[in-house]
Amino acid sequence: MPENTTAHRSLRLGIAGPVGTGKSSLIATICRVLAEEIRLGVITNDIYTDEDARFLRSAGVLDAERIRAVETGACPHTAIRDDVTANLAAVEQLEADFDPLDVVLVESGGDNLTATFSPALVDAQVFVLDVAGGGDVARKGGPGIGRADLLVVNKIDLAPHVGVDVEQMVVDATEAREGRAVLALSRHREDTVAQLRTWVLEVLAAHTAGHHIPRDPGPMAPHFHADGEEHTHDHAHEHPHAHTR
Q: CB–CB of 91/40 below 8 Å?
């Protein structure tokens, strides 16, 4: 019998959100609290640089070789939604190089409130907002805010300095998400970091048991690129996943 050389299929967890909301620091926090419990890898996305990957490597949260960068050369959502080829290849190569990995975190480049990952690329997705963006941003909705598996309201320790009521922001976010999970987070508050750790482990357990079914949050809302043309990204993405061991 030929030897099976297929790498273990990790849980692939997408992290999206606007520029500056703290996606990289969120990934660093996940790595910091879970690196001794589970086997992690990271893929970052930037348009023309590997800056996010370099930030994570310098933070020392994982072995540097477990952090890979994809330079998309295009709008961030293109590489996570429309043509996931480069990201998917990077994930699969990372899984092969460090087989077995439990979780691969895929960070989108900073995008707008509608950004979503294709379920062909990730199994679950986290959308990140921060209080400095304004207390009203959570109730504005959109596919990213409304239908990601988890919405993180980040940097809550800054709320008193920017005049944001975190409790009201969470209430608004929960309503916009029709009750889906919302986490108010500060990397400086261990109670909130513990909630993040628990959520990741619960999703991993469901994935490992074959119970987690990746959901498609739906296409991005119409938006405009620098060329002045409207882009709807209304491709149909039906990718049933059956995770077997």
A: no
pLDDT-based confidence at residue 219 (cuts at 50, 70, 90): low
Count of Cβ atoms closer than 10 Å to residue 209 Cβ: 10
3-state secondary structure of 228: coil
* C-beta neighbour count of 193 within 10 angstroms: 18
User: What average pLDDT does range 186-195 have in this prediction?
Assistant: 98
91: region left, alpha or beta (phi > 0 left; psi from -120 to 50 alpha): alpha
**Please, what is the angle between helix 190-208 and helix 23-34, to 10°?**
80
Q: Strand 230-231 vs strand 223-224: parallel, antiparallel, or unpaired?
A: antiparallel
Residue with tokens 């750790």: 197
Q: Position of tokens 């077995």?
A: 100
* Virtual torsion, Cα 15, 21, 25, 31, nearest 10 deg: -20
What is the reported pLDDT for 221?
Answer: 52
User: What is the C-alpha to C-alpha distance for residues 245 and 241, in angstroms, rounded to an integer?
Assistant: 13
What residues does 112 pair with on adjacent strands? none
Q: Which two tokens stand for residue 237?
A: 């993405």
Percent of the chain surpassing pLDDT 90 = 73
Q: Which residue has the higher pLDDT, 141 or 95?
A: 95
Q: Could you give the residue ranges of the DSSP H alpha helices within the chain?
A: 23-34, 51-59, 76-77, 85-97, 143-147, 159-162, 166-176, 190-208
Q: For 164-171, what is the mean pLDDT?
A: 97
- Which residue's structure tokens are 């990204």? 233
The residues pairing with 16 across neighbouring beta strands, listed in sequence order, are 127
